[in-house]
Amino acid sequence: MSTLVNGKFWGYRRPDGKVGVRNHVLILPTITCATQAAKQITELVQGTVSFIHQHGCAQVGVDYEQTFRTYAGMGANPNVYGVVVLGLGCETHQARSVAGEIAKTGKPVEVVSIQDHGGTLTAIAHGAKIAAKIVQDASAQMRDLCDFSEIIVGTECGGSDACSGLSANPAVGVVSDMIVDRGGTSILAETTELIGAEHLLANRAVDEKVAKRVYEVIKAMEDRAFMMGVDIRTGNPSPGNIKGGLSSLEEKSLGAANKAGSRPLQELIDYAQTPSKKGLVWMDTPGHDIEQLTGMVAGGAQVVLFTTGRGTPTGSPIAPVIKIATNTAIFEKMADNIDINSGSIIDGQESIEAVGQRIFDEVSLVASGKLTKSEILKQHDFGIWRIGPTF
To answer: How far is CA 196 from the centre of its chain?
Structure first.
């Protein structure tokens, strides 16, 4: 791979024109009882990835649709070269339906059914044989020099502390602006952690329709908590946030909103939905780290920037997650898990802009193939935001 060119990265061009930063073959289980078989295929075939989940059956309505959209989005993500969709056969989320949606991208997609193939052992053998062929084809693809206008970066903060809004989050905001200015897309998520700061984002909306949607999404999230008989402000900040120095949800939200930088808010999209516009986009997700990460990746994010003041090993099966410490102490304590230290801002050693540039440079390297620590440790986290009961 050649030396990086300023403002460029080396990525994999897909049949639909999109660009991936990884070249995975995904073994995608559409039902919880196929997840162990999917995992065993990944153990047999190098170059494949999968994930464990508890979804895919007894779901209805908008909850069914959201899970289906998440499955399809994971397979359609540009970081995936090809997909083996593994189903049981009798589940609500039919493997063939999910595969049909992914196939619209033009990438290789095959379906394996445990029931149709005579049980777990024969399904694993059949799936592994198919996966091995797709992996070999994937290994022959070379990277091309690509522009940052083709990047979607997800932004996330987990385990916030009193430093989050002063160091890592505003530094990520600098990166968000840099990507937007280069024609790319930056996703802001965590609706629960924007309550109290919604007016700031509404003021940056490109039109009144988007501004109105900001307030509607915030109200809907608060109403969900009231339906459970609680005020969300009684459970947020979390005990870890409070121990880290945060005193209120508004304080946490004002810090979290800094990840959005300063550019106009182009649109507000649903969970696991692909942005229809370039620039700054807000995805309606919960604050749960894994669920929001999954939603952004299913929405097409090829790289995720994850700030943390308390420390976390969180990663994704298909998208590299760059972990950024808000303070030097947690960076040194969890050096196995965290990629970048922004505590140098708190220590008075670097400016927010300087750390932002350092993070952007890391995005370029990671997008071109450098592994993040969560990837090296195979931290393949996955969780879907359920918005309905199981029947």
So the answer is: 24
